[in-house]
């Protein structure tokens, strides 16, 4: 899925699934990490692409740090 830059917050469990057989591929268009709930994805089962210049910002942002190992730049 692609999350447009206009999204400024994502609620807890928005994309969380109990299934562990597939990986979610997410592209964030914003260079500013949206505010997110404590668990929006199942850790280890998500691949998050963010603008290259924003990788460090996402990896250190509140609650995004949970997914630091899954965040890469494009």
Molecular structure report:
- It is a single chain.
- This protein has 74 residues and is mostly beta strands.
- The chain is built from 1 helix and 6 strands; from the N terminus they run βββββαβ.
- It has one helix spanning 55-60, and strands at 2-3, 9-10, 24-28, 35-36, 46-50, 71-73.
- The strands form 2 sheets. It has a 4-stranded parallel β-sheet with strand order 1-3-5-6.
- The radius of gyration is 11 Å and the shape is globular.
- The protein starts with a strand and ends with a strand.
- The model has no long low-confidence stretch (mean pLDDT 89).
Task: Give me the secondary-structure topology.
Blueprint: E1 2-3, E2 9-10, E3 24-28, E4 35-36, E5 46-50, H1 55-60, E6 71-73
Parallel strand pairs: 1-3, 2-4, 3-5, 5-6
Percent helix range:
under 10%
Strand content: 25-35%
Straight-line distance between termini: 15 Å
Q: How many strands, which pairing sense, and closed or not: the largest β-sheet?
A: 4 strands, parallel
Mean pLDDT: 89
Gyration radius, in Å: 11 Å
Strand order of the largest sheet: 1-3-5-6
Q: What letter string, H or E per element, gives the SSE order? A: EEEEEHE
Could you give the count of β-strands?
6
Tertiary shape: globular
Which regions are unreliable across 5 or more consecutive residues at pLDDT < 50? Answer: none
- Main structural class: mainly beta
Number of helices: 1
Quick recap of the structure?
Helix content is 8%, strand content 26%.
Pick out its properties.
four-stranded parallel beta sheet, 8% helix, globular, 74 residues, mainly beta, two-stranded parallel ribbon
